[in-house]
Every structure is written in C-alpha cells, then in structure tokens.
Amino acid sequence: MNTLNRRAVLRLAGLSALGAAVAACAPDAAGGGAPKGDAAAKAFGFTSWSLNEEAQKGAVQAVLDAYAARAKVTINPASFPYNEYLNQVTLKLRGGQLTGAVQLDISWLAALAAMGRLKDLGAQAAGGGYTDVALGSGQFGGKQLGLPWTTGSIGLVANTELLKKAGVDGMPATVEEFEAALRKVAKLGGGITPYAAATKAAQLKDILPWMRTFGSPLLEGDTITVGDDASVAAVEWYKKLYDDKLIAPDVDRFDARALFAQGKAAFYDDAIITRGVVASQSPDKSLTEKMAPLARPVLKAGDTPQALLWGHVIVVVDGEGSDAAADFAAYATSDTATVASFFEKVKLPPTTTAGLADPKVSGDTFTADWTEKITKTATANPFWRYAGYAQIEAAIAEQVQAVLVGRSPAKEALAKAAETARPLQK
Amino acid sequence: MTATVSSRSIPVERVARRRPPRSRAAAWAAVTVIGFFGLAPIYWLVVTAFTPDDKAFAFPPSLVPTEITFDHFVRLAENEQLFGYLVNSVIVSVVTAVLSVAVSAYMAYAFSKFRYRGRSSLMHLVLASQLFPQALLLVTLYAVFSATGLLGSYTALIVSFTTFTLPLCVWMLKGIFDTVPSTLMEAAAIDGASRWRTLHQIALPLAAPGLVAAGLFAFVRAWNDFIFALTLADPDRQTLPPGLVHTYLGEFQTAWPDLMAASLVVSLPVIAAFMFLQRYLVGGLTAGAVKG
C-alpha cells in the first residue's frame, strides 16, 4: 500500500489550496456586474453615483425600494464614484455591459448620446408635467433622451453678515456695484477673500457665465466666439479683481466652500446644494441663515442675469428591460409625492411644476429664492453639445489662467484658446 | 585599474570621520529637507484623521491639532462595506503576490541558468512591456475579460495585476539567480539531482530574499491600484482604493477627515509587512545589482 510522506501531503495541501483559490476567483453565475433583466422585463439595472454617497444614498434607495414594491420588479443597483463615473459608464455602455436606467449629470448627456444607445423618452416626458427648462436639460439632437431628476443652477451665494459688516447695503445688481461691494469687503481685512472665485485651471470654467455677462455668446452656430471683445473684457475684469486681491489665487470649488464655511469669503459660486455642504464644514451653526443666493450682476441694468444650468437626468439604455426602466425613470422624476419626499431629504429641487408647487418644496425659502433669482434665467453651457466639451472648457481655462498669472494678454490668450478648442468641436 | 582602486580603498568609518563639518551640516540639511517633504504629508494625514470635521477646514490651518476626536475611526469601524473592500484587497493582493512570485521565479531561473536561442530578445521583450502606459491596456483588457466572461471577478483583477508585476519581478529575480554560482547546480547534477529538484531545493532557498522582495512589490502594486480595480471588478469585489474613493469622495463634498482615518488604517498592513520583511526586501532588491 502506498503511503504519503510529509512532502507529498504538503504538496497535496498546496494544490488543494490553489484549487480552492482559483474556484473562489471564478466569476459567479451571474457573470459579473452587468445589470440583468429577464425576458418579461421584471428586472432592470439602475446605475447611479448617488447610490454610494453618504448624503444621498438613503434617499435614492428609498425611491428604488418604493418603485420595486409598487411595480413588483427587481432593480439591480450599480454605482461608480462621481469623478470616474462618465469614464466607467462610457466603457460599460460601449462594451454592452450597461442596461436599464442610468443617472447622468446634464453636462454628460451629449457624450453618451453620441454612442446612439439611449432610448427616446419623449412619451414619458410628454405626460410628466416637467418644466420647460428641466425638459431642455434632457434633450439632445431633437430627442428627449433624459428625464430631468433635479434641475438647478450654479450661481452666486453671499454671506449677508460679512456684507453688513463691510457696509454693503442690498445685493449688488450690476458688475460695477459688485466690484464696489468687493472693495468694501476687502477693507475688512482679517484674511477675508471678498469673492472666492475659481482661479484654479480645473474650475476656471466658472468664468464662462461672466463672459456671457459681458456679452459674449461663447458659441454662435458652430463658431466659437471666445476671443471676441466681450469675452476679452470679461477676462480683463477678472484679472483686475485678481491683481487687486479681490479674488484669490489657487481656488477651486472645494477651497471656495471651505473659505465660505469659515466666514472668510463674502461671495462664491456654487450649485443649489451649497447650503448643506458649507453647513457641514462650518463651525458657525447659524451660517445657513446668513447665506443668500443672488442673481449674477449684469453689465448694465436691464440685462438678463447669467447662470449655468445644473442638474441630473435619468437616461435609459435601449434594449433589455428598457421599458420597465423608462417607467421607473418617469416615476422617480415626476411622481409628486416621491419628488417632494426626495427634496425633503436631500434638498435637490424637483423638475415638475407640481413638484415645485408642493408645500415641502415651495415652503423652503432658500430654494424658492434660488429658483427665482438664479435658476429662472439659467442656461446650459453651449459647449455641452460636443462630446469633447470638457477639453474645450479646459482649453479656455488654461488660457484664462495664463492671463491671471500675467503670462499672456487676454486678447492673445483667448484667441489661442479658441484655436485649440475648434478641433474639439465633435 | 581594479588593483589601483582597491589599494586606495578607505574604510567607510574613516571617510565619515574626515568629512569636514560644513559638508556634514549640508548633508543633514539635505536629509532634513527631503525628510520634510517625505513625512509632512503623512503627518498631515495623521493630524487630519484626528481632527473634528468643522476644525479640519479651519483657515488658516493649524499645524498642531487643537482638538482631538476618534469619531472618524468609530465611523470607519461601523462601516461594513469598507470591511468588504478590505477583504477583497487582501484576497487580490495575496493571490497576486503568490502568483507573481511563482511565475516570475521560473521565468527568471530559465533566463539566468539556461542558454538558448532568443533568450536575450525574450528578456528584453518582457521588459519592454513595461514601456506601455498601463491605462492604455485597460480598454483592451476590459474587452478580453468581457469576452471571456471574467469581467467583474477576482480573476480579472489578479490576472491584470500579475501581468503588470511580472516584468520587474522577473528581472529582479534573474539578478538574484545570476549571483547563485552555477557550480552549485553542476554539483547537484553530479550528485544525481534532477533540474526540478535543483531549482526547488538549491536555487529557490538561496533566492529567498529576492522572492520576498518580488512578492512584496507585487502585493503593494495590487494593494494600491485604483483604476483597474474600479473598472474590472464588480462593485462587491472592488478593493480598498476605489472603495475609499467611492465612500468618501462625492459629487459635492469630500469627507477628508474620514478619508484620512481610513487611509491611515488601511496603510497599517502594508507598513507592518514592510517592517517585518524589510531586511529581506533590502537584500532582495540589491542582490545581483553588483557583479563580481
């Protein structure tokens, strides 16, 4: 009879362990993370970055649970970090791994629409009661490819306490008044940045609404107008604020929020969620009461205040489970009780007339003010229609930064930005 | 030439003693500056991990914490999802390290101790694969794993990590096998040992420091990877780097103190591994670096 010596036993044990490891590493029966739907479309996927974000995941999960119970379907959630989301979703859509409903930032719609795999949600949009501005944020190429989930804007927020201390009466309505207010705030000293405007290249796209304020359309038809007299005047004005230390170097959105939360900035640009974000970073528990949204100052009285549209849409990938996913998208974005409850939890404004009129929403003064003063006149970034919009924004931002640090005159820099941006219009 | 150099060689202690005070001060200044750049981020990580949320964003920032909290560590301990990421990291990193060492040891031994046509070209081909930016291979690997049904699995991660660690591991171990005298192999052969036995009972034990160094390199590579772990693994099989980003870096805000606390905790296994194995690591990395 054969006997096993110690070495043979160890060898067998090693082989067994290796086998077990290989077995453990094998893909499961479901075959990976792609959302699956059955033939009767009683299951579909929902991909969303909010599903894993502490501040929102509970509210989003509640919407999923309520719909799943109501429609008797299974929703397979998937999530990627916000900063990597577009890359991951694009890769998975291209690889056929993405099905069902997908949350998108409105600026990403063109990039995904260009792949030709999104379902037209015109029928769902028609009966949803959405506002025109909101519907517009989900349209591309004449089709309704996304149902608006939240529609807001990026606009100016002020610390009214600091303005009062500086002797600024009322909110500045024109660029001239705004600059005068900044100069008054600067006199307070104490390390206060009057306007925590974006000056880091990564966030300098915030200058685009100022260019519009000065009269540049940015894009006419397919012609980039960055570099025209109005945009040059806007950048020269920004440079003046920079040189006079009314705005600070090396500031992005995160820095601006931190400065504002610490009471070290009188104005800054942010989305409507600013209230919750700065409150969590501030030692001053009453800061939110001192925050006030204001319409971006205009060049001359009577002009329309400029603001950048901001929001999320839900798109649906054509194919497996798409009808059920489209029904879910309509429910999540337009069922009044659902959107009002969602607003109550996360303070993201709804997109339907009925949702906005719900007492839970209309009773919120900050949101009502923001909607009236900022979102009402907000428009989309015209470059969003191009899949390469981010590179276009980066080309402009890079040249604006060159102006700020004194490396180039504004006219020359913006002409160069336009030249770099032109080949990216596709 | 060699004789001249060796006749002039001076003991290291004497060289140090003769160094003028000014150059010693300059050396210390250089060490201090470099140390500051190396250690300042770690110091800031530790300080932020113990700073309350509302103080973490204080302006101007305080170099010394004025208030200490353990809340971030408590929240970390309560987060079951992060524990899942940790388990995934351990599985993927350990298997990658073992697989990398196993494969690269055989490859390196073959490159070092056998002579055959195309050996040199093959060796450089292995090294040349390091010239490609790894992110470029992501799309290709994604398609390959998708077609083979491996997408989302641990296997996808382990195979891709092993692919990237192999070239360096092979070259590191080849250098070590080069230092093992061939006469030992010949002696073993004369005594009747097979090539298999010679490799396993003579060469591998002598190359142990190199195996440890290669294993650690592969482990750390797998432990720290972000983009492959995010793209190739299912959400429930993702490792700590994408897990931490997912948990703490959001659309609107970043929970810096929580992220720093989590980073501190997840660094501990790697730090412990380095401390425990550092003598092997140094020996393994430098072995074979100098000929003769």
TrEMBL record, chain A:
Record keyword Magnesium present: no
UniProt cross-references to Gene3D superfamilies, sorted A to Z: Periplasmic binding protein-like II
Extent of the signal sequence: 1-23
InterPro entries reported for this sequence: TAT_signal
Keywords: Signal, Transport
Keyword NAD included in the entry's annotation: no
PANTHER family, per the entry: MALTOSE-BINDING PERIPLASMIC PROTEIN (PTHR30061), MALTOSE_MALTODEXTRIN-BINDING PERIPLASMIC PROTEIN (PTHR30061:SF50)
Family indicated by similarity: Belongs to the bacterial solute-binding protein 1 family.
Name of the protein: ABC transporter substrate-binding protein
Native source organism of the sequence: Nonomuraea indica
